[in-house]
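# nightly structure sweep
# worker-07 picked up a monomer target from the shared queue
# config: single-sequence mode, recycle default, output format = structure tokens
# input follows
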Amino acid sequence: MAKNNEENKFIKRLKELLKTLFQLDCGELDFGIYRIMNYRRQEIEKFIENDLIQVVEREFEKYKTQNEKEVLEKIEEKRKEIKRLEKELGEKILKNDEIEDKFKEKPFAKEYLGLRKQFEDIEITEAVKTQVFNDLYEFFSRYYEDGDFISQRRYSSKQHRYAIPYNGEEVKLYWANFDQYYIKTGEVFKDYEFNLKDWRITFRTNFAEVVAGNVKAERRYFLLSQNEPLKVDIENQKCLIQFEYRPLTDDDLKIYKIKTKEGKEKETGIKQEELNAILKEKILEEIKDNRLKAVFLGKKENDEKERTILEWNLEKYTRKVTSDFFIHKNLKGFLERELDYFIKTEVVDLNNLEPRHITRAKVVEGIGKWIIEFLHQIEEFQKILWVKKKFVLRTDYVITTDRVPEEFYEEIWKNKEQKKEWEELGFEIPGKKEELKNKKLPIDTKYFSPEFKEKFLEKLTQNADLDDLLDGLLIKSENWQALNLLLGKYKEKVQTIYIDPPFNKEQEADYLYKVGYKDSTWITMLYNSIELARRMMSDKASIFVRCDYNGNMLVRLLMNEIFGEENFRNEIGINRTKKIFTGVKGYNVATDNLFFYTKKEDFKFCAQYKQRGQEQKWLNMHSPGERRPPERIIFGKLLYPPKGRHWTFIQETIDKMIEEGRIRIKEDVEYIDLMGNKVKGMPQYLTGEEELLDSNWTDIPGYSQTQGFPTENSEILLKRVIESTSNEGDLVMDFFLGSGTTTAVAHKLKRKWIGVEMGEHFWTVVLPRMKKVLAYDKSGISKEKDVKEKYNDKSAGGFFKYQVLEQYEDSLHNVEFLNEEKGKKARELFEKSEAGQEYLMKYFLKYETEGSPSLLNLKQFDKPFEYKLKIISSNKGEEVVNVDLVETFNYLIGLKVNKYKFLKDNGRKYVIVLGEKQNRKTAIVWRETTKLNLEKDKEIIEKAIGDYNPEAIFINGDFYGEKNRNYKLLETEFKALMEV
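# output follows
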């Protein structure tokens, strides 16, 4: 009985782990991957509870049979050998299949008896079976942590260390999550929902701003919303609990009875886990319905801590949104490699290679790989949702009134919302509409009707190409998702990249880390996005990455990994906003680092100068090292430099400096030139008012405080970055945009620009700032003399596009099981065959979700302007929005957009985009295809395309096309490029 109890303990432990791995420990949760896994909950639980043991038994039986057959064949061969010896010796060696005593010490007899012993040992004991369950538990539990499989370095029981991937490099950069995507999208919290006893409960976090002087802790906490913390709908049995995530205030210290550490006003010493106990009591106090209160006070099933439903969900919610999450790029490959190593070091004992232990190893391998297949299916499905190109959800334009055709002034003048924004931004509104032409007032198309926007785009592109007219692009999105979509259009087009990612520091709450993986989380996030951005850089492009002492060694190694050590240019020192005081521990930290890399060795670089910090003086005009040609003509005389030296300047510079009176011959100095001649009189030059800029940039501020943003980069800093590596008209990009300094400076310096920002300050800081820049912003570098020449109240103005993208959590939220019936039949067919559970293990997720809105429902292309997604990334709960398929497809095929045409004919709307794909003229036609008169449709399309003569025409749905036209089905291209 004790043995059975021990076996049951190991089996039960493995089953509980598998339920966690397969996300079944959260059966009541109804969002994200939990909702998806609950769809097949019954089948998966049946596999874990019943089929798993049977599978183990079958695996043992399979290897037992194989081993028996193999050993019996060897025994038979040895018998035949002994029979031959009996004939040769004329004596009986085998009697009743036993070796006679006098032959037992002979080698052949020992081999025979050994084989007989092997056959007897093939019988599998219950203890060996128990070991298998324990082996599987030990293997899978060592890599799983809080929802992720981590490539952790572990010591085995035999003190073997798990090896890192290594290909013989002299120096290898490696981190725990190197083979994963970092999918945490910052402090953006989504609805957390679960169902219990006919109640649907939602936790929702709202953003809350607090006055800086009232903040009592820099760390942020989950607190109940001050405005209506609970909303209970008794009739429909719904409960919404609203939280705020913010620093603590004076009032919070009283309400939640929190004490600060003595002498440390900014530190409370409290952890969120402790605060959760207070939150629980306050929530229960707010609930008046006893039925709902009973639901929350019920115990969570199979919870070792015996927490209530409310306690368990509070902990999971607050941990989930403050933890980092990853998706493996190849979970199957990783786990199978580790399983192989585990078996060889933990399961197989080289000193005891009995068949039963070999069988144990083979069964662990077989069952392990089976479980890995299912885990891989879950992970691979999430990876598909992560890497697939995201939909454009919203597109709007901002343009100054001086660039708008006058026919639109009437409608602009009547728009009250637009005028209200002008007032809020501090612009002076003219007395009458006719004066709009002489103003740089930015209009935002979000305040106008779709018809206005369409007429406006069509008019603007009548005599010019849209992408040429646009100065820039703002994207509201997690940066990897944005870069992944933009790559098709901007591959090898970006000239300068500047990023200031969140610093890798633990003492402030501007970035969240999983305990123990702070560095790995940070470097994974950077690697994913920078590696993608590199592909967008032109061959002569540069990238600057700002960081501080917490991450500078990691950034240097990471950039070497992505760009190659040979493309490192400089480590530039720049000023902090304030020094970090370390007291007796060391020198105070006064600078940050700016790492400057280029894509290739031949790059665009324009030397920069700064004001000389000392008086001008005369210096000898030669420098170390020889150059070719060595000679220069100075004051009409051919001169060679001293041996082992070269003249400091080229001939053109010398001629110019002579004209300026900055070169002289110092007659009382003699030297021996490289030809061996004695020369009287040394050429000297007078230093200029400016000196060549080196890697010390501490003469200018590193940060500014004009936007009320804590990490606002200084405009003068960005001016140096952009002017040193780009020319006017070049494309500048920042995908950690922050307050928008990079795009603001790029616009002032007449560069094109792209900015990506995922935070909600996109709406409150970045967008308003860029509107002010268009209207003429007098702050920052606008005061610089050289900038005033190109950016002033007369030359300002501009035109940019801004867009919002679908996010990973939206993709998860829009997964639907549309092929349930087909899936049921497929499962039945598999179960009747030798494949058995293979459908559930490998295929059901992808097969049954095909056609989900986020995975491209091609049927909805019949009505392309009504393609909808349910969006939860906007922090407003669930919103149903129309997807901008037109703009999405433009990115997918990498289209340079020239013109838009909008038509209403044939009982429907037509949107026609004319542009260039890889320098080939291309037309894209969108229209509803239900009840379509194809003959009429053909006439409309041919007339609209007119004499544009595209080399390719993409069109959705059925169509009649001219034989000489290269028509392509739009849906086929869309699906292939979307990568779903």
